[in-house]
């Protein structure tokens, strides 16, 4: 094929350009953080830019080279944001570690990533003291605080003070230009089986994802928004919101370690937050607090819910009781993370509220840039008819091609990434996750989706959380077992809950049994750990057996 | 610098992927066209995709190779849209010719581009008959109509019928994958001096521009919009809206040749248009029609105005009388075209309506992806203080690096493209065009911006159109001369208009004279041709001389 090339400027898509744009166009805009030190801290995009340049200079002082991985163990806050830009912008790789992981996993991941420096919040001093001598490659430990909050003594060798480090560095720095496919950030999946695997984002994938994320049919962010990301910056880059912030000049509000209902609510109100984002389990805590105290949201218009399927009952509560629109979204670490968002099409605007809630319960349609398809067991594509359910595959410029260091081999099938989710898609292209493929309940050769069963349970007024898992059945191989955590003071029986399923679902999908538990185990990113429940109930004898 | 590359999918940004997305996710969405044949035509994104694939196959049949330029002379309509995707998607280059140019210029541009095929609307049959035998490279002429509308006889050799061509082609076609920097479209600037120069967009620049254009802080387009691009598809790709359509799945309404107030208004209403886009001179016609007939807009919420500075009086009329928000935007052919859009920041939301109108009169802030700066005569950057006025320079991935075939040499200054506009920028980053550098009036060594003077005249109730040009003055070298076209029936004098400037502007900026004309010449893209006026009034004797 003969070639004629366009004659437009060759300018690489670099993360530093987001910061430069924010400094130039939104220099006065605020970034507000609840610090782990206890107070509320206020800064601006202009100061963010200056301090990010100091970070870049400090990294040079610490001997960091382009491509080196720099670890963080930190909450959402301005210092973490400075590292987002200072590290990636200078050509090093920001590696956000999940502090909720077991210390052994933290050590494994830091070693696997070969982190050279570790930046961490005061909250994680005990964790880092426990792991510092076990990690193999970290040459410098930096406590993200000021001199006043440095510990008098510590087991960590030559512990550095973040604010001192920045004060000693110049704020003059010229962001380097390089290939946009250069690695920018590293994020490990908290796989429930096997070792965690690293996803290595590039500058290009991050900038493209940021454009897509801000679109009206995705998260719809503008300079007029005040965004509070509850989703942690150590969890797939807070779904890209720190980058969306710089692209749009939205005011950012960081909650630090204060993720309880009261702390979040106070920030929503005092900072006039218009938009938030997080996993369903966090919102449960917030809603309980707001409900218990008879409060309202004065400025919050919408919240993005993803990470796990959002129970329809929660979508309705937010909408009907609080006037907050829930934007259901879906993605994963391997997808930077956004794949779909449940924004309306024109024809939905004329629907009744009930019909709209039905649409909102779906995970949404693919954002331009992401191709998706569902396939059957033979790999053939299935129709988008709301009925056919199959393995969900995706591809696009912000989707993983292989894991860091080639871990786990080639993950792709014919160029598509298999998400491990099982889904159906309606004729309008709205995708509905029915299950994780490993969580599907295989009853007599037929599949039962656990999420539908959980959503029904969640609609029961006495249920705080519900997980549906497979239990052994001598005739059907597997049958659904519902594991339920009641709301405080709720009083209802196994039979009441099973009767609640009548007429809501095909009879044979109804769970065979219900067990009540005090707590359902949550993973490091707030998802229910069904593998632990399956282990716990592996000898459960169903009454139908 | 050692390198570590990200491990994300390498997927080129190709125009065909916009169409694939639209077909898959918005297949049922409508595309409505007022055809030059006279009727209203309705199709869908699904059919657009199928017919675009037929275009690709038809091009192969016609012997078109990758990189070949394919000319169009066409209004906004579904067939033109099919060519947008069929031509670029298959690896050829869509060259949109401006039918308002002089036939000599059409010949020059078609020859310079070495167009292989020319597709044209029925309206341009006389034009093509006049130029067909003069062009050197066009091997096939295709009339964009059906068999019934083909002329019985024509001077054009072997004239082909578009619909026949498509009917004969298969709708099965696999869009090829290639380097995203491959040329996709070619657009010539209608330069007032020198030969027209071609700007060769790439797939990459077009897709990035599309992401940016759809952002909430740019044109803010979603699947819920009904977009009527008045700006022609032969004028910088209708500001990217045909691409935004596929990216978002918005309903598109194409006005064909019906750009008069009545035809436009009827389409706005019958198709429930929510958003439009065009140059100020078009809106003047629409407003006159609506005003004269005492009409209202039922669904239109906003319109993008660019191409020339929009008079503040027009922004107010749209807002106050019709509830239509004017989104002032700025760009140029060399910029794909979007550079700035005047969307609000959070703090503007609390302003009075008058203060907001003042902001809306500016051309807006840079969309992320575009860097801009103003420089003085020494090339040094000037401050953003609403005062300093200088040459406006831009750079970014959808800005020209050189013209087609290197015409005119290297246009860049240190990697920046000089726009030829003179502007000031306020502390919030909102840019205000004060003039084209060639239109600036140099009075005694000081610059007077003609746009401010025109805007004041346009606010006078009797003025239909006003152009301010420099006239010779023996003492000051140049002084402002106002050329005015009155509204029908308006009755006011030269002195009335000059008195209208009192208190609105520095005394020494007030025009030295006013002349009334029956018409102000407009160029092929609807801009006032001040060079013609300067020629016409080159011997004008100012009363102050």
So what's the overall shape of chain A? globular
Number of helical segments with 4 or more residues of chain A? 16
Secondary structure tally: strands of chain A: 25
The parts of chain A where pLDDT drops under 50 for at least 5 residues are none
End-to-end CA span of chain A: 65 Å
Helix/sheet category of chain A = alpha/beta
Going across the major beta sheet of chain A, what is the strand order? 2-1-11-10-12-13-14-15-16
- Report the mean per-residue pLDDT of chain A as an integer: 94
Description:
The structure is a homodimer of 545-residue chains. The termini of chain A are far apart. By secondary structure, the first copy, chain A, is an alpha/beta fold. In chain A, β3 (69-73), α3 (78-89) and β4 (93-96) form a beta-alpha-beta unit. A nine-stranded mixed β-sheet of chain A has the order 2-1-11-10-12-13-14-15-16, sandwiched between helices. A seven-stranded mixed β-sheet of chain A has the order 7-6-5-3-4-8-9, sandwiched between helices. A four-stranded antiparallel β-sheet of chain A has the order 17-18-19-20. The longest helix of chain A has 17 residues, at 45-61. In chain A, α1 packs antiparallel against α2, α2 crosses α3 and α10 packs across α11 (280-292). In chain A, 28% of the residues lie in helices and 24% in strands. The interface between A and B is large, with 80 and 80 residues.
Q: How is the secondary structure organized here?
A:
Two copies of one chain form a homodimer.
Chain A: H1 15-26, E1 30-34, E2 40-44, H2 45-61, E3 69-73, H3 78-89, E4 93-96, H4 103-113, E5 117-120, H5 125-131, E6 140-143, E7 160-161, H6 162-168, E8 183-189, E9 197-202, H7 203-214, E10 226-229, H8 236-239, H9 241-248, E11 251-254, H10 261-270, E12 275-278, H11 280-292, E13 302-305, H12 312-322, E14 325-331, E15 338-341, H13 353-360, E16 365-366, E17 371-375, E18 389-395, E19 417-425, E20 431-436, E21 441-443, E22 446-448, H14 450-458, E23 463-473, E24 477-486, H15 494-499, E25 513-516, H16 530-536
Helix pairs in contact in A: 1-2, 1-3, 1-9, 2-3, 2-6, 7-9, 10-11
């Amino acid at each position: 094929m003969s070639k004629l090339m366009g004659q437009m400027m060759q300018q690489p898509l670099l993360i530093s350009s987001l910061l430069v744009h924010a400094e130039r166009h939104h220099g006065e805009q605020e970034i507000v953080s609840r610090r782990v030190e206890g107070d509320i801290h206020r800064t601006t995009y202009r100061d963010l830019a200056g301090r990010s340049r100091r970070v870049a200079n400090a990294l040079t002082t610490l001997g960091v080279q382009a491509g080196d991985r720099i670890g963080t163990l930190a909450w959402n806050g301005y210092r973490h944001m400075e590292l987002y830009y200072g590290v990636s912008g200078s050509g090093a790789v920001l590696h956000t570690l999940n502090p909720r992981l077991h210390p052994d996993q933290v050590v494994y991941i830091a070693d696997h990533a070969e982190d050279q420096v570790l930046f961490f919040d005061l909250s994680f001093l005990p964790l880092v003291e426990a792991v510092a001598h076990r990690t193999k490659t970290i040459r410098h430990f930096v406590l993200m605080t000021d001199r006043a909050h440095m510990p008098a003594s510590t087991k960590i060798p030559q512990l550095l003070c973040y604010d001192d480090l920045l004060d000693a560095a110049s704020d003059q720095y010229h962001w380097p230009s390089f290939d946009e496919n250069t690695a920018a950030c590293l994020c490990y999946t908290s796989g429930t089986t096997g070792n965690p695997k690293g996803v290595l984002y590039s500058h290009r994938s991050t900038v493209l994802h940021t454009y897509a994320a801000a679109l009206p049919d995705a998260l719809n962010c503008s300079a007029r928004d005040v965004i509070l990301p509850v989703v942690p910056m150590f969890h797939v880059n807070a779904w890209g919101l720190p980058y969306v912030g710089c692209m749009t000049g939205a005011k950012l509000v960081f909650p630090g370690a204060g993720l309880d209902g009261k702390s979040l609510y106070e920030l929503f109100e005092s900072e006039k937050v218009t938009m938030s984002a997080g996993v369903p389990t966090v919102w449960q805590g917030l809603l309980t607090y707001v409900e218990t105290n008879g409060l309202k949201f004065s400025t919050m218009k919408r919240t993005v819910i993803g990470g796990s399927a959002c129970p329809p009952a929660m979508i309705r509560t937010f909408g009907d009781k609080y006037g907050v629109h829930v934007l259901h979204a879906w993605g994963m670490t391997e997808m930077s993370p956004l794949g779909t968002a449940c924004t309306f099409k024109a024809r939905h605007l004329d629907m009744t509220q009930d019909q709209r809630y039905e649409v909102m319960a779906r995970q949404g349609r693919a954002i331009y840039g992401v191709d998706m398809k569902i396939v059957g067991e033979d790999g053939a594509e299935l129709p988008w008819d709301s009925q056919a359910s199959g393995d969900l595959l995706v591809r696009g410029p912000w989707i993983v091609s292989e894991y860091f260091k080639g871990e786990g081999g080639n993950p792709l099938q014919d160029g598509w990434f298999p998400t491990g989710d099982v889904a159906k898609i309606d004729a309008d292209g709205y995708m509905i996750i029915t299950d994780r493929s490993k969580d599907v309940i295989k009853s007599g050769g037929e599949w039962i989706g656990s999420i539908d069963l959980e959503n029904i349970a969640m609609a029961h007024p006495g249920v705080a959380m519900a997980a549906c898992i497979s239990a052994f059945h001598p005739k059907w191989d597997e049958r659904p077992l519902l594991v339920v955590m009641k709301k405080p003071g709720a009083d209802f029986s196994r039979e009441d809950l099973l009767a609640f399923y009548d007429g809501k679902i095909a009879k044979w999908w109804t769970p065979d049994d219900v067990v009540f538990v005090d707590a359902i185990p949550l993973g490091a990113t707030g998802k229910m750990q069904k593998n632990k429940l399956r282990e716990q109930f592996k000898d459960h004898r169903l009454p139908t057996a």
